[in-house]
Amino acid sequence: MARFLWAGVLLLPVLGLFEALPSTWLPGHYANTTADATRFAKDYNTTAEQVLFYSVSASWNYNTNLTDHNSELQVNASLEEQAFTEAWGLKAKEVFPKEFLDTLPDPKVKKLIEKISVLGAANLPPKEREEISRGSWLSREITTSCCLPGRAGETLLAKSCARITRDMFNWPTKLPH
Length: 177
Ligand SMILES: *[C@@H]1O[C@H](CO)[C@@H](O)[C@H](O)[C@H]1NC(C)=O
Ligand SMILES: *[C@@H]1O[C@H](CO)[C@@H](O)[C@H](O)[C@H]1NC(C)=O
Ligand SMILES: *[C@@H]1O[C@H](CO)[C@@H](O)[C@H](O)[C@H]1NC(C)=O
Ligand SMILES: *[C@@H]1O[C@H](CO)[C@@H](O)[C@H](O)[C@H]1NC(C)=O
Description:
Layout: H1 2-11, H2 34-64, H3 68-95, H4 98-101, H5 107-119, H6 126-146, H7 154-170
Helix pairs in contact: 1-2, 2-3, 2-5, 3-5, 3-6, 6-7
The structure holds 2-acetamido-2-deoxy-beta-D-glucopyranose (4 copies).
One 2-acetamido-2-deoxy-beta-D-glucopyranose (NAG) is lined by residues 16-18, 69, 72-73, 76.
Cofactor: chloride
Keywords: Disulfide bond, Glycoprotein, Signal
GO molecular function: metallopeptidase activity; peptidyl-dipeptidase activity
């Protein structure tokens, strides 16, 4: 866990621009060929790993140190995760339509690209997206760490419970159906 935290702390200050994904997280250029479909799937996997790690690190960081600043970092990371999903989803739909995917010999690549297209379909306006990331973050944190007994750091958790409960009434609660 120490290594995980350390890497998270290093990553966090580098990023955080709303919608401005680091260029290394954006999809490159791909042609509608079997080779490029495989490359797209591989690139997606590698990038998704980094984006998720960053987002989970921000969550962890806030969960262990409840400042407004860390809360904002966490919301920003979650928005970036959504921007990532959307950018790759749009690219998948644009370059690899269903008729093309049906010609791919590897069903694993086909299935992954289909999933990427579907996940990226949520083209919500930014404001609404922010509300959702706050909302889904809350439900995730509450069920995973806050009010479950027997976890480490009871005092800290009691503090976060009070804070989360307070924030829950102040934050927008529009959640995806
Ligand atoms: C979060 O993103 C907003 C919008 O880009 C930015 O102004 C703000 O500084 C970011 N917050 C942090 C803590 O990086
Ligand atoms: C991408 O990752 C998924 C889930 O871990 C895996 O099932 C799939 O085979 C991977 N695809 C490629 C092309 O690496
Ligand atoms: C908690 O986060 C703040 C930034 O919001 C930072 O200044 C402070 O050093 C952090 N505290 C710990 C114990 O990591
Ligand atoms: C690939 O794209 C080109 C031009 O965008 C199109 O003419 C061609 O039919 C596509 N090939 C397949 C297999 O979808």
